[in-house]
Specification:
- The structure is a single chain.
- The chain is an all-alpha fold and 131 residues long.
- It folds into 2 domains: 1-48; 50-131, no CATH class.
- It has helices at 3-48, 53-75, 81-99, 110-130.
- Helix 2 packs across helix 4 (110-130).
- The longest helix has 46 residues, at 3-48.
- The radius of gyration is 28 Å and the shape is elongated.
- The model has no long low-confidence stretch (mean pLDDT 84).
Length: 131
């Protein structure tokens, strides 16, 4: 092989690598753009529902806590005084978060919500009778 053929191959390889890098950069840019568009769409949907983003995020966290409280209320029939207090405080946080979002968002969780609310009322009643 002569020197010109080697130089041509090297230049072709460099162009190929440059095209690959450019394709990778374009793909990353497109992915970032898609993520940004999805975030803006979610933001618009939250605003259209008449909520604040902070309230929606609080609802998501409260929904997770509702699941834990539901399992806790079903697992333990008799709670110690300290457990009752913790349950009451966490349940109040969940109720506050659920009050800030439209009912249609938590229709699926309604039964869990009502079960936790019943347990909450029972604990409140027992504590009130003790005092």
């Amino acid at each position: 092989m002569d020197i010109y053929a080697i130089i041509k191959m090297k230049i072709a390889n460099e162009k190929k690598e440059g095209v690959q890098k450019m394709f990778l950069l374009i793909a990353i840019y497109v992915l970032i753009l898609v993520i940004f568009i999805l975030m803006m769409f979610a933001y618009v949907q939250i605003k259209a529902a008449g909520m604040k983003v902070k309230d929606f995020y609080g609802f998501i966290e409260a929904n997770q806590m509702l699941d834990k409280l539901y399992r806790f209320s079903k697992k333990y029939e008799k709670l110690s005084s300290q457990d009752q207090l913790i349950f009451l405080v966490e349940a109040e946080k969940v109720f506050d978060a659920f009050d800030k979002v439209p009912d249609m968002l938590w229709e699926e969780e309604y039964q869990k919500y009502m079960d936790v609310l019943d347990k909450y009322k029972n604990i409140k009643m027992v504590r009130w009778e003790q005092n």
